[in-house]
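REQUEST FORM: STRUCTURE PREDICTION
Request ID: SP-0412
Submitted by: Lab K.M.
Chain count: 1
Length (residues): 238
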Amino acid sequence: MELGILLRLLLAHLLGDFLFQPQGWVKAKERKKGKAPQMYYHVLVITILTYVLLWDWSKWYIPLIVMVSHLAIDIWKSHRLNNFIYFLFDQLLHLAVIFLIWITVYFNSHVIVEWAIKYLNSSHFWILILSYYLVIGPLGIAIGKATEKWQREAGMNAGGLSKAGMWIGRCERVLILTFIISNQYTALGFLMAAKSILRFGDKDDREQKKTEYILVGTLISFSSAAIVGVIVSYILKA
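STATUS: Completed
RESULT:
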């Protein structure tokens, strides 16, 4: 029951912030900030959707809290740069408000705080944090150092998107670690196959050195993340 309420609140936010917000409203909010009528149209849509999907007329204060918080966050964001970082931060703030409303209204806050403290103090939580940080940060740096010579020989620094390879490597290692921890080895096989197709299906990439460098880098990235995943999975089960 409580989880359904959270999902409905999230759905109201996602519908109002994306599907039912025309691009013209977004542009108007960027130009006129808090003076744009579209700002208030948008917040009104969010409020109505929240009230309707909540389906609990006695909890009228929940849409009211969503309305005030959403307006404040959107006005704040309109005075910031229109880039991915602020977009992500804006969404996280909206989701945090929804989650706090859900926790406060439908749960015993003391029980939630006790559970959170207990989980944060558990070794399980910190093993996961450490393993994901390892594959995102230090492991990527180590792979870059190990393949630096081949990278120069293959001329990979010339052309291409800035830091695209770094982010591709981070994403694939996170996915590999997640698949292994959750025992989804079939998905791991599909990921490897898809990576091979994308890498070697490019007709413009004909140079042997580049092909060999890509193959070596991919195998090192996959194997190192897989080793970390197996070790972490064993530790968590033990």
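NOTES: The chain has a mean pLDDT of 84.
Reviewed by: T.R.
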